[in-house]
Amino acid sequence: MATKTINTELLTKMFLAGAANLEAKKEFINELNVFPVPDGDTGTNMTLTIMSAAKEVSSLENPDMMTVSKAISSGSLRGARGNSGVILSQLLRGFTKEIREYKEIDAPILARACERARATAYKAVMKPKEGTILTVAKGVAQKAAEMAETTDDLEVFIPEVLKHAEYVLSKTPEMLPVLKEAGVVDSGGQGLLEVLNGAYDAFQGKEIDYSAIEASSGTTMVKPGAQAETDIKFGYCTEFIIMVEKEFTDKDETDFKAYLESIGDSIVCVADDDIVKIHVHTNDPGLAIQKALTYGQLSRMKIDNMREEHQEKLIRESEKLAAKQKEERKKEEPRKSVGFIAVSIGEGMNEIFRELGVDYIIEGGQTMNPSTEDMLTAIDEVNADHIFILPNNKNIILAANQAQMLTKDKDILVIPTKTVPQGITAIINYMPEADVDTNFETMNEEIKNVKTGQVTYAVRDTKIDDKEIHEGDIMGIGDAGILSVGQSVEATAKEMLAQLVDDDTELISLYYGQDILEEDAMRFAQEIEELYPDADVDAHSGGQPIYYYVLSVE
Q: Are the CB atoms for 358 and 427 separated by under 8 Å?
């Protein structure tokens, strides 16, 4: 018997199944991510985006098509992370705008919704690039329009659309040479296909495990409340983050939890991409640390004596009260004309932005892109009529633009800074005596004069721009792509600088990361100064993770 319509209940099941399937395939999609650099975050960004919407949908009671549509649109919009996440949120936004007025969806409505999804997503991207998730979305819309003219049976309609989407995805390597070189299809397009495949499974009545939706609602380091000394069996509250050097599998998580249970209690082990957050109460923190070191490097280690917990609790409560009073004083301050929000990647960088007058700093970067919701929170915190946002990463610009569109009571101006040095240059060139429009134009012009280089490591084997890259190789990444690849951080940085510096260069700035010692950075800066005696060279502690050096050439 033919199925000709989709009601609210079935649509809800299809959306949640699509989200669950994307969550299940997240790591696979991350592995496909080689464009523009092999940073492996497309699956993560898309999953965080759709899970934000799935959580809202799951909380609805007796929903109709309108409320489900609003939950999908609002949830994905606010949770959008990275370019792929923002584009996915726009696809969902366009789709739900078309269907929200109907009680049931038939083939013509479904076709129009697919086209509106495509149009909304293309409109959101300033320079749409074919061979990406956009191309797959366009293929879906085109095939849906064609099928709506030939059949009203969704059991025929949907599988044909999916078949064509898979075909379009298979052609993405022909559109983007970098995909062909790496031997992969587009990761964002694959992510979209996984959402559609999951939705089709639910349409067919297959049993879907929705537990991933709750599991992905957030990752929080939990510290239990204070206990009386007499009740404390394990004396030390131990917390740290493992920066895993290889995949932390389900078996790894199970084995590590079992080990922690053998030496303590109150255990929290949360795996999130390439980090694992750990909390345990134990009488021997060294044992937990030694075991953790077998999985990777450790960061943010914290060990508290539980028998001093009561005193610490009093201190924390006092600090909380002081912070509340400070916030109250802040609210009493008069609204100012101009404020600044910047995305930053390390405490040293944060301090530089603070000194330059930034009001609110959002922690984030290449491996964890702030969401639209993070941007809106920052905007709400800054008490100003006009607010400049410095995304400082090209993968965050779309989220900033989306926050701009959602803000009605303040004038939001997004300066499309793609790197932290561009952000620093933009705010340095802000002129308090000039009006907002003049400053917007000036800052946009000045960031064009900054050349940026970033020295980091590859997370997987690939081939980009005729460069063979292996996992663990050091990469020098310029504004236009990968400029150098090697085994030495300093040699790779020098090779990249040789392509950035010209006769007009006046200043070279080095921001060294958390893995670089100050004395090594100063020595390296001296070597750069000897190589380019006509340019001033300075070094600053950036404190950023992942990137050994961030370089600015002006």
A: yes
